[in-house]
Amino acid sequence: MPAPIDFYFDFSSPYGYLASRKIDAIAAAHGRKVAWRPILLGVAFKATGGAPLPSIPIKGVYAMRDFLRSARFHGIPYRQPTTFPVSTISAVRAFYWLQDRDPAKAVELAKALYNAYFTEDLDISKPENVAQVAARFGVNAQELAAALGDAAVKERTKTEVDAAVTKGVFGSPYIVVDGEPFWGMDRLEQVERWLAKGPF
Amino acid sequence: MPAPIDFYFDFSSPYGYLASRKIDAIAAAHGRKVAWRPILLGVAFKATGGAPLPSIPIKGVYAMRDFLRSARFHGIPYRQPTTFPVSTISAVRAFYWLQDRDPAKAVELAKALYNAYFTEDLDISKPENVAQVAARFGVNAQELAAALGDAAVKERTKTEVDAAVTKGVFGSPYIVVDGEPFWGMDRLEQVERWLAKGPF
Q: CA-nearest residue of chain B to A186?
């Protein structure tokens, strides 16, 4: 079986969320698995001088409109979170902690966190909300809460995020197929072509 | 007949160029005309704090790769210009000067300038190259050269560019259909849907 697709994303990224609803099906259609890799866009922005879209004059106003319209275009449920963007460090730590215990469940958690933030308007910057989402499918909330403050989990998270930025990940979603990078929800079509027919 | 589509673009913008190869056909398929509106992205960047893609660390390297790959994906000829990006003030002035004399020819000039820059590697920042391209279809090169230094032409250009920025144009291409803004080559699919079925 060919190598999995790397799917880098920030839990606070609308386009990352939209892509998260499609990436598994796209990969599966071509016999691929997806390696879900949450990152912290704020760390990447330090390398590129980037800033969260809503903070950018004029472009930010457009972006807020485009999030909603793009969700409708793709037929994906979307509710603009009241607090946006948010820090997602707890969400990312929870993911990597769980990945070391149950990789499949970690992916389930990633999807559940995205859905909670972008369809239920649950503020996933709060550790207790991350724990609440995880508890929905049997993760021990107390264990998770403890893990979020654990030095090893913090270090693991930092290592993963730094490795992504070192590899050139600067946005969300950022997808790598056999070494070829694709940035943005808008590049899913090119990802599909690449998977189907190889380099173009 | 419904109102024309506003097609804002910068002559130095690869994604603007790619969109320029498709926008007329998309509009025509839905009984629309296109109002070609060259702008100066540098002026828009002053309002948003934006910067040319190649100047952005990491993201710039990705963008150079994406220009070429996206051109191949869409089957559009593309040659990365040696000098990039360039000032396009002469190109924009030539366009608006010609528009006041022969609107159809001005659109022809816009397409020819884009093709010259992105397929022939002709540096369209040079007034003599702009004149050379215009001369290919019968524009008097001497008249054009004189117009580029004309105060009224400069003022007309400034007015057009400022009006675009005031309307919220912050990138290239930037397409407005019946008041709805779409930013980026990536949004042509949404433009098509909007034209075909109205608001979504």
A: B186
Range A130-140 average pLDDT: 95
Measured CA to CA, the distance from residue A148 to residue A154 in angstroms comes to: 7
Nearest Cβ partner for A58 among B48, B65, B186: B48
- pLDDT of A1 higher than 90: no
What is residue A135's predicted lDDT score, i.e. its pLDDT?
A: 96
Nearest of B117, B126, B41, B40 to residue B81 by alpha carbon: B117
DSSP for A51-76 reads --GGGSTTHHHHHHHHHHHHHHHHT-
Residue A63: pLDDT band (50, 70, 90) is: very high
Q: Which chain B residue has its CA at the smallest distance from A57's CA? A: B48
Structure-derived torsion over alpha carbons of residues A66, A71, A75, A76, reported in degrees to the nearest 10: 180
The shortest CB-CB distance from B183 to any of A47, A48, A62 is to A62
Q: How far is CA B195 from CA A66, B178, B189, in A?
A: 17, 9, 10
Q: Is B162 on the interface with A (CB under 8 A)?
A: no
List the single residue in B62, B168, B186 with the smallest CB-CB distance to A58.
B168
Token reading at B128: 């003599």
> Band of the pLDDT at A54, cuts 50, 70, 90?
confident
Please give the pLDDT value at position B71.
98
Of B66, B170, B193, the CB nearest to A73: B193
Tell me if chain B has a CB within 8 Å of the CB of A179. Answer: no
| Cα of B158 vs its chain's centroid, Å | 16
pLDDT in tens, A94-133: 999 999 999 999 999 999 999 999 999 999 999 999 999 9
Look-up of token digits 């912290």: A40
Contact B190 A70 (CB under 8 A): yes
pTM of this prediction?
Answer: 0.96
Residue A38 CA to residue A33 CA, distance in Å, equals 16
C-beta atoms of B200 and A69 within 8 A? yes
| Residue B163 backbone phi and psi in degrees, to 5 | -65, -40
- Nearest residue on chain B to A59, judged by CA atoms? B170
Instruction: Order the strands of the A34-38 sheet from edge to edge.
Output: A34-38, A5-9, A174-177, A180-183
* Among chain A residues, CA nearest to B46: A57
